[in-house]
Amino acid sequence: MDDETLPEGLMRGEDGRVRCWWHGGKPDYLAYHDDEWGRPVDDDRRLFEKLCLEGFQSGLSWLTILRKRDNFRAAFADFDIEAVARFGEDDVTRLLGDAGIVRHRGKIESTINNARRAIELREEAGSLAAWFWAREPGPDERPAVADYPGLTAMTKTPTSTAISKELKKRGWSFVGPTTVYAFMQAMGLVNDHVEGCWCRREVEVARAAFVRP
Prior knowledge:
Layout: E1 10-12, E2 18-20, H1 27-35, H2 44-57, H3 62-67, H4 69-75, H5 81-85, H6 89-96, H7 105-125, H8 128-133, H9 158-169, H10 177-187, H11 198-209
């Protein structure tokens, strides 16, 4: 199949592999697509990090956040939930002065708040992983956007909307339905690699072998 006959939502890389279009051939974004996006995760720290970073991404591109991810990890104690929950006003001031991250007071304070809410959720459910994976959508649920397949900035589903509402009731912030769905895509709760992307089959195998917490 040549490039002219590739279905919408796919592009061929310099290595000849066909992938989802959204990485745009950028090396760091391409590596994220191939090695991380959609592969199932049950580590609470990684889940917390991704949900926080998706909140920081609101209004920006994910590539911007991805390129600052190491800075965010350094600034937020590698997203250790208990450590972030102990952050106070001095830490907010420190973070507002950190040019390596997104210096948005509301998002910084949200991350600290969400760490405290995450501790509460873990005490109830045993782990963040157990809570989120218990809400894994069925295989027939699809994003409510007309131009799916493909990653869009306006994607949400009934499940992401329901999770968003639950989290907000528990006091979480910057967890709207679109943010939650991007989190679900990245952490493997769904496999949104476009049909024909070489990663799609690998992710399906990984999801099938994944032991839900």
